[in-house]
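Suppose a colleague, Dr. K., hands you the sequence of a protein chain of 311 amino acids and asks what its three-dimensional shape might be. Before reaching for any lab equipment, you can write down a predicted structure in token form. Begin with the sequence itself:
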Amino acid sequence: MLNYFLKGEKGTRLRFIGMLLSAMLVLLSVFTLTQKGLNFGLDFTGGYLTEFTTSQSVELKELQSFIAKNHNGEFELTAQGNSHFQLREAPSASTTANSLDWQSAVTQNDDINAQVLSSSYIGSQVGDELFDQGCLAMFAAMIAVMIYLAVRFEWRLALGSVVALVHDLILVLGLFSLLQIEFNLTVLASLLAIIGYSLNDSIIVGDRVRELLRVQSNNVLSPATIINNAIKSTLTRTLITSGTTLATVASVWLLAGAPLQGFAIALFTGIVVGTFSSICIAATLPELLGLSAKNYEVKVDAHTQTLLDMP
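The predicted structure, expressed as tokens, is then:
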């Protein structure tokens, strides 16, 4: 099989090399997830969430340094606007004394003159429930996708699309584990969006492969050539769609601020690896499993064949 790919067309060799690279990245992601895990946010771990405004514009770094002097635990400060801030405290750090100390400091300081808008506590039980419901939603989406693919495609193409989908999710989770980016509900929502986007790319390529296999039922062209032709005919459409979507997500990443940064990073990564996997996995794995034009030949029973052979 290795010689078949290495001695084949240039496109076939590139797809095979890409699939090997994807396998290595998946193994690396799984290793990272088992060693470092995910950096769950307060949505899942629980803790205090406090929102406040300042009377004038204050630099985020300066405000963070000021609060750190009056806070003994770990916290995360994000800017919602020029004078609107949000502070998150982990359960171990969100003690009453800590909350009173830093809140008194920012409200009594004349240069900051902050006003607390709201302060709420998310319990660990609520976080566990949110995590369970999020995982259940992702599992339900995966089951729906598998049923759809089983109905729409021959099993080899369907399996290739499912493997590409799982590959995309593992790589995104591996990136968040490697960089220890906060994993919260918005990131979980982006994973559901990635499922839909990755499926869309795989279906575009799979549909074209199926159409060309039906046309080439006389086996004039090899399956590798047919798949390469299918990828070439859909590549422009795929790149334009992915490019415009990436431009939109990049704008959210750069301009929407910290609350949506994790969402944008996950979606940006998912679109890139989803486009890659639709070519190197969703189209290549069926070829490894023996996909050919024979799988789409119309089977005729003996009686019908006799009628067709009659002059």
